[in-house]
Amino acid sequence: MNNKNILIAYFSRKGNNYFGGNIVNLPIGNTEFAAEIIEKLTGGDLFKINPVKKYSEDYQKCTEEAKADLQANARPELTEYLDSIKNYDFILLGYPNWWGTLPMPVFTFLERYDLSGKTILPFCTHEGSGMGHSEHDIQRVCPQAIILKGLPIRGSSVKNAEKDIQRWLGESKVLMA
Ligand SMILES: Cc1cc2nc3c(=O)[nH]c(=O)nc-3n(C[C@H](O)[C@H](O)[C@H](O)COP(=O)(O)O)c2cc1C
What we know:
Layout: E1 6-10, E2 15-19, E3 22-26, H1 30-42, E4 45-48, H2 59-71, E5 90-96, H3 104-112, E6 119-126, H4 134-141, E7 146-147, E8 151-154, H5 162-171
Parallel strand pairs: 1-4, 1-5, 5-6, 6-7, 6-8
Antiparallel strand pairs: 2-3
């Protein structure tokens, strides 16, 4: 499958994280794992939202850095931007739930482009809070975009999420796009 009108843009952090109640070292972040499943199912283009300043691989430190960014309403600079988003109709937007919302680099990404008329499908990995208020926050920064119902995925179950992802893509009509 080759769907050049689908962009899968995601933020994910590898390193120490809670995984089913324990701290473990993840070589691939949970959201990255989900993004790769979606790439396989849709044939869309994959883009990693990568901040210049890396968050700590230490879980505790990372939660503090993320909280400081959230409180400052920061827009961390990214290492790379897409030249244009014009040719994409669907943006499958992946991120971990951080303090109930999107990690701030995802806001940097969203505010970089004119997303008027684009359809955004959020998928969010989490450890209990689901999508949090992330969908509302996406709509706030992209008022002209169409935000479809997001898919929450429990991070520690991401390896078993393919069926749920497939169903969600089907309901959103992306697989027929
Ligand atoms: C800074 C930080 C804040 C988090 N805040 C929440 C939260 O508010 N609610 C929640 O359910 N999980 C929270 N988590 C857990 C992550 O959302 C979850 O582990 C996610 O799958 C990590 O995805 P990643 O490996 O792609 O980065 C947080 C994790 C981090 C590192």
